[in-house]
């Protein structure tokens, strides 16, 4: 059984534009995504539009059961590269021609947005009419203000080309600027979030019945493998006061007392302890998807435990040498201390690791095996020494938490320093096989080296990659088919996504790539001052504190 509250009900015959907000994955994943819900709320707040939701494996809307071909616009939310397969499948299943050139005036306009659409639209450029590059609040209203007056949208799309953040394949000339919400007070917050009630775990959103609280956007830490660390710079926050007021208003109206913090760097929120304390004091339970190790304090852990959080998710990434190459200067001691503290408080701890990093050797893999085993032993040591301090834990037996691990090949992404680093499936496959042999007795999950290859090609490919996607609808592609299409770029090459002007300067990314090879760190600008990476306006730049003067 599935029951929803707060979905929009309108008469489709009484609006100017009908949009199918299409998520190329299942309902559970779609309704766990805050961006998807933001766009749904934004568009439906307009009286001239009706935005309905469509999720895999269906081609009819949740709200009215309308088929995809009945809509004026089909808008895909692209969060993961692997969902590209489902984009074409959903269009094909709906009887809509896949390629732009084959669609007539009676076909819906196909739109795409989200981080994948913003970072490298070239892969799907033969299939998508409009790409929304950046955060929707800054772009969508401008697009639909014009779209609502179009008589024949297919022949009038060029009128959208002057809107910043809009990329029209085959029409747009020059670069497109990625648009973000500079002031989080202008970000969209729905006062009537969709609430899903179900007894089927396949439909239950990841955070359950919770308020998805967007406490910040962007990240300026500069982890060299992380696309969001460069795509949406700088970090922007909303005040504690406004966030707490928002949560209280939703709670008073709908009874939700659980809050899930959403943001690229949740634990870097400048007033994180105050925010947790304020919400905890008002009776809210708090969930966080993951936290940066260097931002975690004992007080934060105690508050999160008291508010009901059961699992702490962190990312040590690798051994110290390789971790610092990725610009994460976190000591082993810091990691051990946080894990020990969390386990003592009764948290389960999930740790994410990467393999296939630049300069990684077989010796590094052996050190990683020893390192993971040492982390796993922490729980046993704490339990044996009876050092638990969890007076506040909700566990009835006051037991220490459990350890779990995830090991994944690093996937080079556009607009990061690793965009010039080529994925090596053969090497990663060998490493995963060895790691499974040595660590198989632990609670550990491994990603597939083949899946990593496909993710890399979809992330860093060009419009020719789309042909593979199209081919996959009718033929099962072999690993060799993918290997034959693996991209590889030199430092001075033109890249398929060079026409997307993101918040990090390409020359800065080149410098970062060379810093990897030279084993150099780039300090965090929030503490050490601006190093001119590109996105910040002069008034937003952080100045390093020197000799007591800012």
Care to describe what's here?
- This protein is α/β, with parallel strands linked by helices and 550 residues long.
- Helices cover 33% and strands 15% of the residues.
- It has 19 helices and 19 strands.
- It has helices at residues 27-30, 34-44, 84-93, 115-119, 140-147, 153-156, 228-231, 240-254, 272-281, 298-306, 320-325, 332-344, 362-385, 425-439, 449-460, 465-472, 479-483, 506-517, 525-528; strands at 2-5, 17-23, 49-55, 73-77, 109-113, 130-132, 166-167, 176-177, 195-198, 211-214, 216-217, 236-237, 258-262, 285-287, 311-317, 348-355, 403-409, 444-446, 500-501.
- A 6-stranded mixed beta sheet has the order 3-2-4-5-6-7. The protein has a 4-stranded parallel beta sheet with strand order 15-16-17-18, with helices on one face. A 3-stranded parallel beta sheet has the order 10-13-14, with helices on one face.
- Helix 8 runs parallel beside helix 9 (272-281).
- The longest helix has 24 residues, at 362-385.
- The protein is globular.
- The chain starts with a strand and ends in a 22-residue tail after the last helix.
- 44% of the residues are buried.
- The model is unreliable at 387-397 and 544-550 (pLDDT under 50).
In a nutshell, what does this entry contain?
With 550 residues, the protein is of the alpha/beta class. The chain has 19 helices and 19 strands.
């Amino acid at each position: 059984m599935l029951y929803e509250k707060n979905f929009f009900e309108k008469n489709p015959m009484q609006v100017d534009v009908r949009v199918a907000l299409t998520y190329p994955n299942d309902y559970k994943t779609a309704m766990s995504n805050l961006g998807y819900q933001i766009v749904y709320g934004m568009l439906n707040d307009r009286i001239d539009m009706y935005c309905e939701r469509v999720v895999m494996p269906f081609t009819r809307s949740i709200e009215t059961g309308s088929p995809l071909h009945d809509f004026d616009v089909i808008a895909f939310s692209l969060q993961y590269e692997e969902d590209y397969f489902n984009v074409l499948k959903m269009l094909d299943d709906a009887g809509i021609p896949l390629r732009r050139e084959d669609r007539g005036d009676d076909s819906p306009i196909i739109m795409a947005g989200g981080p994948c659409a913003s970072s490298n639209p070239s892969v799907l450029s033969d299939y998508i009419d409009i790409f929304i590059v950046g955060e929707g609040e800054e772009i969508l209203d401008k697009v639909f203000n014009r779209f609502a007056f179009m008589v024949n949208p297919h022949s009038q799309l060029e009128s959208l080309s002057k809107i910043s953040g809009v990329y029209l394949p085959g029409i747009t000339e020059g670069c497109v600027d990625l648009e973000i919400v500079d002031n989080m007070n202008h970000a969209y917050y729905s006062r009537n979030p969709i609430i899903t009630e179900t007894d089927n775990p396949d439909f239950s959103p990841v955070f359950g019945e919770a308020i998805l609280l967007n406490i910040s956007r962007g990240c300026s830490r500069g982890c060299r493998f992380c696309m969001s660390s460069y795509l949406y710079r700088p970090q922007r926050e909303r005040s504690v006061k406004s966030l707490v007021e928002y949560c209280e208003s939703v709670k008073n109206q709908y009874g939700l007392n659980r809050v899930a913090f959403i943001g690229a760097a949740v634990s870097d929120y400048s007033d994180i302890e105050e925010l947790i304390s304020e919400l905890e004091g008002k009776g809210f339970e708090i969930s966080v998807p993951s936290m940066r190790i260097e931002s975690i304090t004992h007080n934060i852990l105690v508050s999160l435990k008291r508010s009901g959080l059961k699992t702490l998710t962190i990312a040590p990434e690798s051994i110290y040498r390789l971790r610092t190459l990725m610009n994460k200067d976190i000591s082993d001691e810091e990691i051990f201390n946080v894990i020990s503290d969390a386990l003592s408080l009764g948290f389960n701890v999930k740790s994410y690791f990467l393999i296939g990093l630049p300069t990684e050797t077989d010796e590094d893999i052996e050190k990683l095996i020893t390192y993971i085993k040492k982390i796993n032993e922490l729980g046993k040591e704490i339990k044996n020494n009876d050092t638990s301090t969890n007076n506040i834990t909700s566990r009835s037996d006051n037991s220490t938490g459990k350890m779990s691990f995830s090991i994944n090949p690093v996937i080079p992404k556009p607009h990061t320093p690793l965009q010039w680093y080529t994925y090596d499936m053969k090497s990663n496959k060998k490493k995963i096989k060895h790691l499974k042999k040595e660590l198989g007795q632990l609670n550990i999950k491994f990603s597939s080296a083949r899946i990593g290859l496909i993710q890399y090609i979809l992330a860093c490919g060009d419009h020719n990659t789309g042909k593979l996607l199209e081919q996959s609808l009718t033929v099962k592609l072999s690993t060799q088919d993918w290997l034959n299409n693996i991209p590889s770029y030199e430092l001075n090459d033109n890249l398929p996504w060079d026409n997307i002007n993101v918040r990090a300067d390409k020359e800065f990314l080149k410098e970062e790539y060379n810093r990897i090879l030279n084993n150099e760190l780039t300090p965090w600008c929030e503490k050490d001052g601006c190093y001119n990476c590109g996105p910040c306006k002069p008034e937003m730049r952080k100045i390093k504190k020197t000799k007591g003067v800012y």
